[in-house]
Give the backbone structure.
Amino acid sequence: MKFKKIYMDHAATTPLRKEVKKAMEPYFSKKFGNASSLHTRGQEAKDALEESREKVARLLEVDPENLYFTSSGTESNNTILKGTAFKNAEKGLLSKSKGHIITSKIEHPCIMETCEWLKTQGFDVTYVPVDEDGVIKVDEYKKAFRRDTILASVMYANNEIGTIQPIKELAKIASEKNVPFHTDAVQAYGKIPLNLDNVNALTVSSHKLYGPKGVGLLYSDTEFTPLLHGGGHENGKRAGTENVAGIVGFAKASELAFKEMEREKKRQAKLRDELIDGLLEIDNSMLNGHETKRLPNNVNVSFEYIEGESLVLKLDDEGIEASTGSACSSHKLKPSHVLQAIGLSAEEAHGSLRLTLGKENNEEHVDYVLENTPEVVEELREMSPTKPKKEKKEKKEISDPCFD
Amino acid sequence: MILVSISDKMSMYTKKVMELFRNPKNMGEIEDADAVGEAGNPVCGDQMKLFLKTDDRRITDVKFQTYGCAAAIATSSIVTKKVKGKKIEEALKLTKDDILEDLGGLPEQKVHCSFLALEALEDALDDYK
Ligand SMILES: Cc1ncc(COP(=O)(O)O)c(C=O)c1O
Ligand SMILES: [Zn+2]
């Protein structure tokens, strides 16, 4: 084998960058202070914390006062959804209904499950459908707004199929309806330029961009009730002694990602398209997600007659680390809700493969994946009772990358 | 539902399951089979087909085809291994627990994938009952 391991699962997580680790190191031991302490060591931590906040604010071109560091993307999403819901319930302005939230059918589980829980608490949720490419149906989204709508939340780009949503348009519609708009930008931040016009709240996670795990960010210029009460940290919006080392690391990782964005976006999109073209050479395969409105690092292809978990495990034996949305691989034994939402049959979802690129991937890796995957697919199809008797299927054409 | 990446999976399966998944025994088709059994899992979509050659109520050869996850492939493999050379009466006595024991267990949510092979065997042996 030419490579020991090729990691192509960057949508799941990424390794910590050397530069990030170096930036974090002093804050574990030498500069260990509590940012709430009055003495020099405490103030040193406080300065690092506030500098990090300002750094990120400059990248996002927002007011640092509206940035809250959290423990994860999951926490940020929970905070904005529950926090907005609680805030409105507190106000008690809405007589009959406690409040209504609009979101999409392809959100990350930490949005979906939070919405489901809010329903049990008396709130109402509309899940707006998407088209076959995973783009939200804007007319249905527009129609979903009601007098009691308290928040609209649509992800910037999808973690499974990479589809990028028309956030500018969605945020504008919400603003016209006087409803705050939130976007989960965990997969988009640092990878594509973000348009935050009319966006009131935004979620980011550090470990998706070579930062440490366990650090998230919530931007919000709209009111929300905190989930964690305590010592008044983060402007009273998120109690708990700040994870200074982690936050410093996140800010550093953000800075580097934004600096390299233009170049990496182009470079990875080229590798992505080579992977997609190459994988679609395999008979009875199809691309999941939009051809062009797509994250530069996301490849998601379904192979008929095989099951995704088997495929991922076999690829791992070849040194390729990837993911699948197969029902067999899920705890609920249901195919990915995202693949279902774009209209895939159970069989099509069963054979899905996701490869997500990162900055350490190169042409050689792509060649290696394209050399090995067809054999593995063939091997599994050999085993399959559902495989067809030799037939060819038309391939989807992939056009030039575009980053709107 | 979350996409499960490979690293989550490895710790889920026993060595035995992975070994059988990597090197399945009795995989393939028997063109002139005496009996063919089929089973499908309505929950997750896995499917299996089992081919038997018999002689005087003894299973002389057996092969399988499976469309499914590692659990489904490993159990197909072990079921065929266990019934090859056995009397049909004995083969019919095989239980789910026998299979799970041989595999050293399966993660809970994977147990359903392992029933497929036994169902296909029962389907194939239906005519012999
Ligand atoms: C779109 C999206 N939102 C939220 C999250 C959750 O982020 P975290 O892992 O920081 O909780 C993820 C990561 O899996 C994601 O891909
Ligand atoms: Zn299965």
